[in-house]
Specification:
This protein is mainly alpha-helical and 360 residues long. The protein has one domain. The chain has 13 helices and three strands, in the order ααβαααααααααααββ. The chain has a three-stranded mixed beta sheet, with helices on one face.
Length: 360
């Protein structure tokens, strides 16, 4: 029995990993044949391990400013000029640092000077710090640079609130119980991920987004908005201490899950066409990622009977690891999409071996 379960699990993760890396049914093969300034045999290397290599380096103000001058007709690069190098976001850590310092200063005002007037600020900054920083990371990762800061903020605010409205609408329809059972956790997971998915699809179709990195950014912005407003709301129910836990737990929750769904929507839809209701039920490359996010959400919310804080922390750790694994899958798929559209060659590094896949 154990061998059978292990075999099924191994097959599942193999399907997730290879399915995204090998299948490009949603790409127009004719584009790959006609694009690309480099030689057709010029190799492209993908090293996801370099992702954080720029974080601890010094960067100028001009470098930071250039990150935000994107998304307009005059600043959106053509597909030929889209960066094909491994993504190396760094500015998001500066955003987090500023928000974290602000949070600490507000907490100091509360406990040192006994100023209750700073409580709203603590709630807002505490809820904002991690989700907003993650959104900025995905903004940097969007190598197509075709979504502006203004559009991102609209998605963050409007999309985040709209996803909460859709969630509450679903809650009126479905029977939600307050008990901490696996059934209730599953219903919450389905409702909230489906609500975010509906809003993500709405924005992807409205913006006519066609690239994986676009979907990931749109999803992350909506998930970040959802996370900020939800965490702020929990304070009124469970007290101010809630913000000290939920603020940093956000590293592996709504923003990450929604980013995965956003990338999956792009993987599932027909290129240059909107995502349809039929795509939702008939595209395995979308549906499998959606189901995984529902499972992750369910596992996060489920209080396993007769267990303590140690098991709960282990659940969260497992959730975060799997969630970020899926993010790296999406980043890998997004980089390969660029190579495919540019008609370049991809080299996969596996320990001491190099497997070459020619895109012809």
């Amino acid at each position: 029995m154990k061998k059978s379960v292990k075999r099924i699990g191994s097959h599942f993760f193999s399907l997730v990993w290879t399915g995204v890396r090998r299948n490009y049914d949603n790409l127009d093969d004719n584009i790959a044949k006609h694009l690309g300034e480099s030689e057709p045999n010029s190799p492209v290397e993908i090293h996801l391990s370099r992702m954080l290599s720029e974080v601890f380096k010094r960067h100028t103000r001009d470098e930071a400013d250039r990150l935000f001058i994107v998304g307009t007709k005059s600043t959106t690069p053509s597909l030929l000029k889209v960066s094909s190098r491994p993504v190396t976001p760094w500015f998001f850590t500066r955003v987090f640092l500023v928000l974290a310092i602000s949070f600490v200063m507000l907490v100091a005002l509360l406990f040192v000077f006994k100023s209750n007037k700073v409580i709203p600020g603590i709630i807002f900054i505490g809820s904002l710090a991690v989700p907003f920083s993650l959104m900025m990371m995905f903004f940097e990762i969007n190598v197509y640079q075709n979504i502006s800061v203004r559009q991102t903020m609209v998605i963050f605010l409007v999309g985040g609130i709209l996803s909460l409205i859709v969630t509450m609408t679903f809650y009126l329809i479905l029977p939600i119980r307050t008990e901490v059972s696996i059934e209730s956790a599953l219903i919450v997971g389905v409702v909230e991920e489906l609500a975010k998915c509906v809003v993500i699809i709405l924005f992807i179709n409205t913006y006519k987004a066609n690239y994986i990195f676009n979907g990931v950014l749109i999803g992350a912005a909506i998930g970040a908005g959802f996370s900020v407003f939800e965490s702020s709301g929990y304070v009124s129910e469970y007290g101010l201490v809630t913000i000290f836990t939920r603020s940093f737990q956000a590293i592996g929750t709504h923003a990450i899950w929604a980013a995965v769904i956003g990338g999956a929507v792009i993987l599932g839809k027909v290129r240059k066409k909107p995502f349809t209701v039929r795509d939702f039920f008939t595209k395995p490359k979308f549906f499998i990622f959606f189901l995984v996010t529902v499972c992750l959400h369910t596992f996060w919310d489920w209080d396993i009977p007769n267990t303590g804080i140690g098991v709960s922390l282990l659940q969260e750790f497992i959730d975060i690891v799997i969630g970020w694994f899926l993010i790296f899958v999406m980043i890998d798929a997004g980089l390969r999409e660029v190579k495919t559209l540019q008609g370049q060659q991809i080299i996969i590094h596996r320990s001491k071996q190099k497997k070459i896949v020619n895109k012809r």
